[in-house]
Structures are given as C-alpha cells and as structure tokens.
Amino acid sequence: MADYQRRTKDQLAARVAQDIFDGAVVNLGIGQPTLVANHLPAGREVVLHSENGILGMGPAPAAGAEDYDLINAGKQPVTLLPGGAYFHHADSFAMMRGGHIDICVLGAFQVSATGDLANWSTGEPGAIPAVGGAMDLATGAKQTWVMMDLLTKQGASKVVAQCSYPLTGLACVKRIYSDLATLACTPQGLRCIDRVPGLSLQELERLVGLPIAEDAAAD
Amino acid sequence: MIDKLAASVEEALQGTPDGATVLIGGFGTAGIPDALIDGLIAQGARELTVVNNNAGNGEAGLAALLKAGRVRKIICSFPRQADSFVFDGLYRAGKIELELVPQGNLAERIRAAGAGIGAFFCPTGYGTELAAGRETRVIDGRHCVLEYPIHGDLALIKAECGDRWGNLTYRKAARNFGPVMAMAAKKTVATVHEVAELGTLDPEAIVTPGIFVSRVVKIDRTATQAGGFKKKEVA
C-alpha cells in the first residue's frame, strides 16, 4: 500500500498559489484553477485577468448582489477590485497573445514531458468541440502552468510521452502542479520540483512511466 | 444633420438580406443583444452566418434564432455550454455548420476586418487540428499561422448609452466583443438603455466612436441571467 497521501484540491490550489509572485498578472482557467484565488498568501497583490475583459477581478459577490453584466470566463458573477478595469475582447486577448500575462493556470487532459498540452477536446465522436481562449492563453502567457490530478480515475498517467488527445499547444507548459507532485516540463523531459511526503522518485517514475530528473532546488 | 437614432428595432434592421454574415456581440449572456436578435427573427432573413463567442444559451436570444432555423453556419470559440441544447441538437443532426475558432483569433480576425488588415500571422493554434492545412511561417523564431479577417454585413451590439452620432458607452464586462464587432460590419446596429444629448457623453469615456455605428435604438433595461454554468442539483 502507498504510504503517501494525495494533496486535496484545496492543498493543491494552495501549492500553486504559493508560487504566484507579488505583482503578478494571472489568468486562472475555469474549473479547478479558479480555486487558486482563494489561497493567495496574504500581503501578495495579484491582478487577476478574465478573458471577457476584466483586470482586477474580485471574488463572487454576496448573494443577492449579483450583476450579470459582470461575469467571469465561466459565466459566473464576480466583482471588480479597486484599480480594476474593463476592456474589449481584442484588447483582452492582446494581453494574452502579446505576452503581457505573467502566469496562466489551466486544467488539462494530458501534458507531454516536453510541455505539449491537450485540454480542449477528447476527440470523442459526437462531442461538441469548444476551445474558447485555451490556445491563446497556453501559447501567449509568459508562463503556462497546468493544475490537475496526476492520474486518471483508471490510474493512467495524464503526463505522457506524447499526447493522444487533440493538442492545445506545443511545448507551452512550464510546470505541472498535481495532487502527487510538482513537475517541470523541459526540452529534455520532466524534472521533479517537489512531491508529497512518502512518495519516492522511483515510485513517481513508475506511476508516470517516464524518467524524471530530481531537482531539489526548484527554479 | 446626423441622426442615427432609430425609432424601433424593426426600422433599424429592415433590409437585412438572406445569406448575411451577422456579428453578434456578447459573451455567454453578458452583452447579448437579445432585442436585436428577436428583431432579426421577426425580420425574417435566412441562411445567415452568425459570429458570436458562444452558440446560444437556453431558448432565448441567439438560441431562439438557431431554433428558428435561420442560421446556416456559426463561427464561434465555445459552443458547448451547460444550456446550449438548441445548438447541440442542430450540430448533432448535421443541420448547422460550425467553424471553431480560438477566442483570440476570433476577436483579432474581427478587429482586423474593421482595421483594413488583409491577414495576419499568429502563433495561436500552431500544431493543432484547428490550424491543420493552413499556411504557416516562422517569424522571430516562432511558428505562426495565417489568419484572415472576418467581415460582417451586419453587427448587432448591446451598449449602455448612445447619442445621435452613434457614440457608445458600455457597461462592465458586457462590453466584450461589442467594440470590435462594431468596427467590422457594413452596418452596425446598437441598442442602448439611455440616449444622451449630443455633447453630454464624456468624450474620454466613449468606447465606440459613432463612425463605427449606423443605427442606435433605445430599449428598456431587462435583467439578464448568467448562462453557461451548471445548474445546481436539487437534493
């Protein structure tokens, strides 16, 4: 039996938040990455960008105070912090595509060891394809981080030698924050930044099925 | 005298031809010009190509236009929503053509049309199936894909306040695609909730200058609902 424990979703969100620097402009993808906003360390000023034209996005409003002209990328009501701004879609995506966003945090179906990302389509017949801003973010942000479980529910690694799902971008992911380990994707393959207590590098390599270089000093 | 104020949605939309490409503002349901879409349904144009970020929510607005069978093709980035069942059904039945475009390319292709850009190269989508078969070029060491503008015959915009010259302001994140779509169509119709006397809008606050706007229609404010998020299950 494994003598290590997976990070909970909140622990994982806190682990990602720990690496977001003071003053960073960050885009949090819909779904699990949204949780990161709840774990930003006190005293760190971080500007959240929402693709639909918001910088300085704040948390959800109190019940009854929702304004449906002020929603996030997931179409849920949000607020604007002091200093925040609204702008149109071409400007919003110029922020991504022009390299002005410091960090984007995205979910993923698969990430390759060299940072190829698959997160927009499972390619299933009959599925409705939808890409949204994922390709622009993955390619345009200064750093693209992925936040996901390391394994599928069936136990297969979501970190792979080559993505089998349709690609979102090539060599765009810099880091993978997962429930078991934090990994760096490099042109030479994976490096381990950290892993949960009790999980050996050998066991991590066995789970992923790929070689992983040890890197105690995270970059 | 310049007077772009239209007495009604009906008047503003008259003459919309079959086969038109219609740019429709909005992201989810924020900024969706529901009154103009309803007007387009009543006006009757068919075989439309619609450009919007999504593909309709619930049964109102864009979903109603789809349901009425008026749309031949939709160009969008994110058709799949928790409540996009009208589009989903048409798509699965092969009754609507879909051109799926990364959202930044959608915005920039529309902006390019408005700005007179012939085409542009951009890294988004390189190496993915959405760029398959397209012309590419390495620029400054990055692989880029050739993208063409999206021109509209008609743009339908939901703004906040306007004047008789067609100057527009928007409200919060309902701005989204409005300003770029207004630039990119032969004819742009905007609804507003307030009409300002010429000269009373703060020139620093006008987001869409009237040069991009053909007609302005005042409509009553109705509460919009956020769309696209999953309904909570009742225990």
Automatic annotation (TrEMBL), chain A:
<dbReference type="GO" id="GO:0008410">
    <property type="term" value="F:CoA-transferase activity"/>
</dbReference>
<dbReference type="InterPro" id="IPR037171">
    <property type="entry name" value="NagB/RpiA_transferase-like"/>
</dbReference>
<dbReference type="InterPro" id="IPR012791">
    <property type="entry name" value="3-oxoacid_CoA-transf_B"/>
</dbReference>
<comment type="similarity">
    <text>Belongs to the 3-oxoacid CoA-transferase subunit B family.</text>
</comment>
<keyword id="KW-0808">Transferase</keyword>
<dbReference type="Pfam" id="PF01144">
    <property type="entry name" value="CoA_trans"/>
</dbReference>
<dbReference type="InterPro" id="IPR004164">
    <property type="entry name" value="CoA_transf_AS"/>
</dbReference>
<protein>
    <submittedName>
        <fullName>3-oxoadipate CoA-transferase beta subunit</fullName>
    </submittedName>
</protein>
<dbReference type="InterPro" id="IPR004165">
    <property type="entry name" value="CoA_trans_fam_I"/>
</dbReference>
Automatic annotation (TrEMBL), chain B:
<dbReference type="InterPro" id="IPR004165">
    <property type="entry name" value="CoA_trans_fam_I"/>
</dbReference>
<keyword id="KW-0808">Transferase</keyword>
<dbReference type="InterPro" id="IPR004163">
    <property type="entry name" value="CoA_transf_BS"/>
</dbReference>
<dbReference type="InterPro" id="IPR012792">
    <property type="entry name" value="3-oxoacid_CoA-transf_A"/>
</dbReference>
<protein>
    <submittedName>
        <fullName>3-oxoadipate CoA-transferase alpha subunit</fullName>
    </submittedName>
</protein>
<dbReference type="Pfam" id="PF01144">
    <property type="entry name" value="CoA_trans"/>
</dbReference>
<dbReference type="GO" id="GO:0008410">
    <property type="term" value="F:CoA-transferase activity"/>
</dbReference>
<dbReference type="InterPro" id="IPR037171">
    <property type="entry name" value="NagB/RpiA_transferase-like"/>
</dbReference>
<comment type="similarity">
    <text>Belongs to the 3-oxoacid CoA-transferase subunit A family.</text>
</comment>
